[in-house]
C-alpha cells in the first residue's frame, strides 16, 4: 500500500463504548478486513480536524450488522511504523475528526507500553492501491 499521510497524536482514554462496538462488528471485521479485532480501540487525539485528509481516501466501508447501527469507514494504517492497524470512523461516532480510533488484533496499550499522554505516529495508507 502507498503511504498517504502521517499524523502524530496523543493517546487518551475513551468512554468505554468501543469494546461493545467492536464486539458488535466483530464478524464484519473478520469478513471485510480478514482479522479478529481486539475488543476496544486506541484513542489518539491529533489536535486538528483531519476530515479533509480522510475525504481524499477511498475507505473500506463496513455495513451495519442491523439497520439501527451505522456504517463504519475503515482506513488501513500502521502505528509507530511497526504494526498494521486500522483507523475506524463510525458515521455516528461521538468523536470528531481530531480523534482517531485505532483497531488492531491486539491491545495496543499493552503491546506498545502506551499510557495516556504518550505520543504515537499513525501512517495512513491509501486502500485504493490494494
Please sum up the structure shown:
The chain is α+β, with helices and mostly antiparallel strands and 130 residues long. Helix content is 21%, strand content 36%. A six-stranded antiparallel β-barrel has the order 1-2-6-5-4-7.
Total number of helical segments? 3
Residue share in helices? 10-25%
Which fold name is given in CATH as the topology? Elongation Factor Tu (Ef-tu), domain 3
Structural shape: globular
| Level-2 CATH architecture | Beta Barrel
Q: Which percent band covers the strand fraction?
A: 35-45%
pLDDT averaged over residues = 89
Structural descriptors:
alpha+beta, Elongation Factor Tu (Ef-tu), domain 3, six-stranded antiparallel β-barrel, globular, 130 residues
Give an overview of the whole structure:
The chain is of the alpha+beta class and 130 residues long. The protein has one domain: Riboflavin kinase-like (Elongation Factor Tu (Ef-tu), domain 3), CATH 2.40.30.30. Helix content is 21%, strand content 36%. A 6-stranded antiparallel beta barrel has the order 1-2-6-5-4-7. The N and C termini lie close together (6 Å). The model has no long low-confidence stretch (mean pLDDT 89).
Helix and strand layout, with pairings?
Layout: E1 2-12, H1 17-33, E2 42-45, H2 51-55, E3 60-62, E4 72-79, E5 83-90, E6 99-103, H3 108-112, E7 119-126
Antiparallel strand pairs: 1-2, 1-7, 2-6, 3-4, 4-5, 4-7, 5-6
Amino acid at each position: 500500500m502507498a503511504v498517504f499521510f502521517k499524523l502524530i497524536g496523543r493517546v487518551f482514554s475513551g468512554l468505554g463504548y468501543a469494546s461493545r462496538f467492536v464486539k458488535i462488528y466483530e464478524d464484519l471485521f473478520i469478513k471485510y478486513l480478514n482479522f479478529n479485532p481486539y475488543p476496544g480501540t486506541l484513542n489518539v487525539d491529533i489536535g486538528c480536524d483531519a476530515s479533509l485528509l480522510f475525504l481524499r481516501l477511498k475507505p473500506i466501508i463496513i455495513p451495519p450488522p442491523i439497520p439501527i447501527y451505522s456504517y463504519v469507514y475503515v482506513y488501513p494504517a500502521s502505528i509507530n511504523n511497526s504494526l498494521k492497524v486500522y483507523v475506524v470512523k463510525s458515521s455516528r461516532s461521538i468523536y470528531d475528526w481530531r480523534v482517531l480510533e485505532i483497531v488492531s488484533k491486539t491491545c495496543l496499550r499493552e503491546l506498545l507500553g502506551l499510557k495516556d499522554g504518550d505520543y504515537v505516529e499513525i501512517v495512513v495508507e491509501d486502500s485504493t492501491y490494494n
